[in-house]
User: Fold these one by one.
Assistant:
Number 1:
Amino acid sequence: MPTPAIHVRNLTKRYQDRAVVQDISFALAPGETLVLLGPSGCGKTTLLKMLNRLIEPDGGTIEINGHDIRQQNPAELRRGLGYVIQQVGLLPHYTVAENVAVVPKLLKHKPEQITQRTTELLTRLHLPPAQYAGQYPRQLSGGQQQRVGIARALAADPPIVLMDEPFGALDPITRAAIRQDFRELDELRRKTIVLVTHDVQEAFELADCIALLNQGQIQQMGTPRELLFRPANNFVRQFFAAERLALQLRVLQLADVLPFLPMLPETLDAPTLPTTASVQEALELLSGAPGSQLRIAETNKAVDLAGLMAGFERALSAATA
Ligand SMILES: Nc1ncnc2c1ncn2[C@@H]1O[C@H](COP(=O)(O)OP(=O)(O)OP(=O)(O)O)[C@@H](O)[C@H]1O
């Protein structure tokens, strides 16, 4: 394994003799998204804030790109780590462009480079600069402010970004829209991200890897699929119980269902999905047009709604067997 982007060993934090983070260890490879998930008060934010030294641990070590963060000046460390929080924390007397430029300015990037980067980020985050660069935070909606917060965290192109409930304060529709942008933003895909949430659907949508915490301890760390189909204990099983079906539809892909699908005569004008599409995506496509079929790219198979559901059921039995 290459040097982990983040390597945490035996991390512990106590408040008045109560360990709110207990002996946590993990390694995160560069470019991965780790979601810290768990009930309120389980220690997610405390763990995240130890990564950028907003909170100092009582025990254990943290290495970022192979360097012990205790050897680094906290302010410098933080300039190298993007940070997005629920309250956004934009500076009210700075324009959108000025807010985005804060860290690049501290790092003494060239003015023309900063302008170019700001323009690029605002455009990609659906805030056309001609309209928004000169506005003040109070003139923006909550969702727009959150997009500016993300642009600000990415402005200096840090390889690691820490996010604490970044979509927590938004209504469900805005939240889904920003999550979609988040997934489609190429530059975020390349970054190492640690994201805190208590929203299970959000965790499954964004994570390469989930660490499910309870009372300061990792109950299980693994891919969404591992947590769902191979729960390490009862806590993990119970945590996903209420949303199990929705999660299964999201986690299983057409590739999983494929062996159980009957061959159908090809309908040339049918919509096509790749084998990596989730059963959920296929279901959405098919339920809009009952009786219709979809083609599965690079295979000789097509499927209708009934066939998909029958295949899903068999793929589920195979995954949990
Ligand atoms: N400064 C502090 N002094 C004492 N206790 C604290 C302090 N900060 C946090 N705690 C306690 O530590 C525990 C973990 O808090 P933390 O904020 O990390 O949880 P969380 O999982 O992020 O919760 P939430 O999802 O509600 O934000 C909580 O029980 C909290 O009350």
Note: The mean pLDDT is 89.
Number 2:
Amino acid sequence: MIWSLLGQAPVSLAYYKSSLSIYKTKPSTPLNRFSSGFPAPISTPAIRVFCSKSGRVGSMASSVQNQGSISYLTQREAAEVDETLMGPLGFSVDQLMELAGLSVATSIAEVYKPSEYNRVLAICGPGNNGGDGLVAARHLYHFGYKPFVCYPKRTQKPLYSGLVTQLESLSIPFLSVNELPMDLSKDFDILVDAMFGFSFHGAPRPPFDELIQKLVNLHNYEQVQQKSPVIVSVDIPSGWHVEEGDVGGEGIKPDMLVSLTAPKLCAKKFSGPHHFLGGRFVPPAIAEKYKLCLPQYPGTSMCVRIGKPPQIDISALRENYISPEFREDQVEADPLDLFRKWFDDAMTAGLKEPNAMALSTTGKDGKPSSRMVLLKGVDKGGFVWYTNYESQKGRELSENPHASLLFYWDGLNRQVRVEGSVQKVSEEESEQYFHSRPRGSQIGAIVSKQSTVVPGRHVLHQQYKELEEKYSNEGLIPKPKHWGGYRLQPNRFEFWQGQTSRLHDRLEYSPQEIDGKRSSSPPWFSQTFQLTSIPLPITCKKSKQINPED
Ligand SMILES: NC(=O)C1=CN([C@@H]2O[C@H](COP(=O)(O)OP(=O)(O)OC[C@H]3O[C@@H](n4cnc5c(N)ncnc54)[C@H](OP(=O)(O)O)[C@@H]3O)[C@@H](O)[C@H]2O)[C@H](O)CC1
Ligand SMILES: Cc1cc2nc3c(=O)[nH]c(=O)nc-3n(C[C@H](O)[C@H](O)[C@H](O)COP(=O)(O)O)c2cc1C
Ligand SMILES: Cc1ncc(COP(=O)(O)O)c(C=O)c1O
Ligand SMILES: [K+]
């Protein structure tokens, strides 16, 4: 299929025309543009690299190396950055180690879900790299993993004995080298290599030579092996030369490398699928001084993916949902109460925009269309959202006043479907809501001829600017006639709670028939909605208890 392209402007939802030649010069379909444009199934977004502004400064700067815009440090530079952080910049080793260990744990959690990779062995060395491993083990415990620790050469400093006590207080088992099984693959899902970091030199001495060999023996990510645990190396794959990497080619081959502060030179030789950066504590002064180019961390994350994104087999992407049981006898009689309860759960879980819902409409041509809108109110009268009445959805709703709403609360493994008939809300209600919005959004609603083609972004921006000036005096911005709310009055709800092996819980509420007639006058659902097929007064069944792949 040959596709034409209509770009969508960012500020408004009007479209602007864009050259179609993009498909002539780049013979790709929208689908492969999509898959090549998005790096990974993991939650980290595309990498944006930030660099210090000035040129190279300081004595060591000339040896800071970049590969694809990201800086790599030599061993000496890494040690010096460390010293600067802990000297003039006032950090303590405890602080940095805590943040480093947390970065390692969050990187692991981004890729290896505790439901599948639960048993973690952290092998910790005598220095700070080992300390990072101890901290990571503690965080992993709190994230739902089952950690074990092998810490054969303990350091007698209070920082380290404190970390050990903390782990012991969580009943995390410490295993001696002798207690480790010959073959680590049966007992662990993740092996955290926290033996050596950037101060490693020479050849590994006992007992670490043997431990490194255990990792070498069991794992080579290039070989497809069933049931092989993954290796996550902290900062440096232990045994590798800090700058040259795996010189003899016989070292460990981690699946994941979590570089700390900035990757060291050996990381250029890392060819495993998951390279992350952690240690979100580098002040601009350090980045500037050492001319560090580092990726931006997304949102509030403690880690960011760097390096090539892994090749994704989309067909293999799946989650096994593990949730508390959602039972018929636990639900509310009124689906609205259950909706509110689940909405509160989504808020409490800190989900982003839990009020975002997919709205599906069909016009008289019967062709469905869906888009996201924001729920702005829910009560006995129904579910309310606001939009442009002249948009595609507005046109379709005028032709066919029935719609479906869909909420998906990732993280809670929950989905709610709501279907019903739709009416415009009153002008007064729309007025009131319109004026509660930020002034920028009010102007945006005037500017945006939603779902129409416009000549370019500049037109929108120009109109926006003019209106901004016009209404700069804090006066009322008039609501355009074509902007307002809709209210969907539900006639069907389905609450879905994901469960293991695709045997999900699905409960459907549909209107009860009284004397052979459907109740139709609101507010009726608190009384007359029923969960299909439990004996009255409230009936309930797992609707369509469904084949396992539903
Ligand atoms: N700012 C940061 O980047 C931070 C990094 N952190 C982590 O700290 C490590 C570096 O820690 P450091 O203590 O300097 O060094 P190591 O953990 O690499 O290990 C040093 C110990 O290892 C011994 N060692 C060295 N070589 C060998 C060997 N061939 N065989 C056996 N033992 C060896 C060494 O003993 P020596 O007697 O040989 O000196 C030390 O006992 C960094 O990589 C990060 O992971 C911080 O946690 C946070 C800030
Ligand atoms: C999370 C999210 C929330 C949105 N909320 C609204 C909204 O409340 N109202 C709205 O008109 N458009 C909203 N949009 C934009 C719509 O998805 C859509 O692009 C626009 O309304 C035009 O749709 P149409 O051409 O199908 O009518 C939202 C988009 C997203 C991603
Ligand atoms: C075009 C459009 N209209 C309305 C909204 C809802 O915005 P508000 O929360 O300001 O009503 C959104 C939200 O993304 C939107 O994109
Ligand atoms: K390591």
Note: The first strand starts at residue 6 and ends at 8.
Number 3:
Amino acid sequence: MQDEPEVAVLRYGHRPGRDDRMTTHVGLTARALGADRVVFPDNAGQSQETVEDITGRFGGPFEVELTDALNATIRNWEGTVVHLTMYGERVQDVEGEIREAHREEPLLVVVGGEKVPFEVYEGADWNVGVTNQPHSEVAGLAVFLDRLFDGRELEREWEDADRQVIPMATGKKVVDPDEES
Ligand SMILES: C[S@@+](CC[C@H](N)C(=O)[O-])C[C@H]1O[C@@H](n2cnc3c(N)ncnc32)[C@H](O)[C@@H]1O
């Protein structure tokens, strides 16, 4: 988020067809819940297009990148690396230390798809479990980002949006923010 060290999310692995929706949702969740950037494997171009399209309509800033070098992205990260896994330390036990680290330097959050190789576990500063139960990369990422930002991400303002949802108890209202102001 603005005025804070960067938070990037790395989607580690993507099976075209089977993972399209999940990978897209990793990107949309990263964007909506305060990350600055998502990095997808280079075979996830379709998900990149979708997330960029949403950013174009609902605002940013938010970047989507593709890489053919997942391991190097982790290895060369200049900052803290958190890998979300059901086998990791409990998020409630380590969130304070991770928040402190993020005050000082950029944070890379790695989420898997199919089996994640052991070098990712070794390359991470923290392996973190959002519960130690199996669930999904989207759910794990959402809870982790909310813990990291302590709810501040819910107040985020969006720039250059064509559409803005007006919250209401019942019904749907979407406006062009330029016309509203
Ligand atoms: C289908 S799961 C694979 C489960 C895998 N055995 C693991 O290590 O968590 C895909 C991804 O969801 C995320 N995930 C699943 N359960 C999680 C949990 N309890 N805590 C944190 N992340 C989780 C991890 O990033 C994982 O790579």
Note: The chain has a mean pLDDT of 96.
Number 4:
Amino acid sequence: MKFSQRLYDKVKPIWEQNHAHPFVQGMGDGTLAKEKFRFYMIQDYLYLIEYAKVFALGAVKATDVKTMARFAELLHSTLSEEMELHRQYAKKFGIATQELEEAKPSPTTLAYTHYMLHVSQNGTLAELVAALLPCMWSYWEIGKDLAKKKDACDHEFYGEWITMYASAEFGQLATWCINLMDEHAKGKPEPELRKLEEIFLNTTRFEYMFWDMAYHEEMWPNNG
Ligand SMILES: Cc1ncc(CO)c(N)n1
């Protein structure tokens, strides 16, 4: 069995919870409150700034030029394409550039991004890939799932989001990451595989928490 299949089986129940989450379902049927999506967009923009740095670290840790180039492409496409989607949404939702740039991360955004950066800075390339894989893979799965729903891709607010994450281009990036994980897991002893599995599980848990944080527009307690 491929290592990625083992990872998938391990987190399947959590991914099912992601798909069933009212935030995700609300994007799919178009009923999600705009305020919640606005909150999500701002937090996700902050998330992507840190996430892009994980790709930069991937380029640093890559041991061949081809992998290095691919990480550089991912860094570029995150900054110019994925974050451009967010900037366009910000315009649509009346979020000024200044508000976007001055926004502060919620506890969940901070914990999630810091965990990913910690693993990426201190771990092996395989550990870095295990940390970022749930982000790409689970968004692609959610995108494809929502795109199947009637009219979802044409929705005034959520259609562009669904179209981007369901796209073949995004799918190719996710597939590349899945293959890279399998390549780097090959021949590794069981204790190392268990460590990779734990990292993958942790960022999967954070993905769920991110949806939940957005749905509840959760910042620090006591308005602090
Ligand atoms: C929280 C989160 N996970 C994954 C992605 C996909 O890149 C994203 N934009 N945001």
Note: The chain has a mean pLDDT of 96.
